[in-house]
């Protein structure tokens, strides 16, 4: 079963709703980075949030990057998304497993920390990228994405991000939703939504019971109120290349490149997003050095 995202309008356009099954995507990330429980949940939630935010706000070739740095033991988390439903991400400390919190859930708040910021950078094809930054208000990340949308983009929203991790660190379920209140929304619709959100079980728990993204929207709003607009495939994808790493190598100080050539007769670059390794031999490094510094 492959992952997908549903885009919908609710109550004749009073709300916009996105729901996603990202189980395979988060599993791929878990395997690439060998994440343990708390790191899996933190990275997984960031990937799901990035996919939802990308689907809700990008089109064409636009991309965005989410940076989370809360000062907690997992360190920095990065995720990059686009309008086509692919995402990649990395986490500074993959091997974090804290004891469960008082609700018997993975303690994402203390793994991520609340002493820092969430930063979203959007490349919309303009001269300057758009950057929005908010302090981490929760560390659980769903609330942080919600706060980001309200504070930085002035869109009243609700974001739920949920990852269920098995005892062997594999991913049992990962998903979420993003709801946006549109200008025509009535007080009754908003009040009803708030009540339903309070009563809603965790997304990953609903998914473990067999619920799909469209089922979750039906539970939230009532099937008769949901109009599905689009279904988009989702996957983890890294588009790194040797050329990209050669460009990065070219930004190294001259003496570092000379040392790699003289001492190591080559270099290996490892992609932080997919662990792919790229080898550069002496001749390739020499070419990079000459190209970068002999102009
Ligand atoms: Zn890569």
Automatic annotation (TrEMBL):
Cellular component annotations (GO), alphabetically ordered: cytoplasm
HAMAP family documented for this protein: HslO (MF_00117)
Keyword presence, Nucleotide-binding: no
PTM comment, free text: Under oxidizing conditions two disulfide bonds are formed involving the reactive cysteines. Under reducing conditions zinc is bound to the reactive cysteines and the protein is inactive.
Cystines in this chain: 238-240, 271-274
GO MF, any single term: protein folding chaperone
Family per similarity comment: Belongs to the HSP33 family.
Record gene name: hslO
One GO term of the biological process aspect: protein refolding
Keyword vocabulary terms for this entry: Chaperone, Cytoplasm, Disulfide bond, Redox-active center, Stress response, Zinc
Pfam families: HSP33
Function (record text): Redox regulated molecular chaperone. Protects both thermally unfolding and oxidatively damaged proteins from irreversible aggregation. Plays an important role in the bacterial defense system toward oxidative stress.
Organism: Ligilactobacillus ceti DSM 22408
Descriptive protein name: 33 kDa chaperonin
Compartments where located: Cytoplasm
Principal place of residence: cytoplasm
Keyword set includes ATP-binding: no
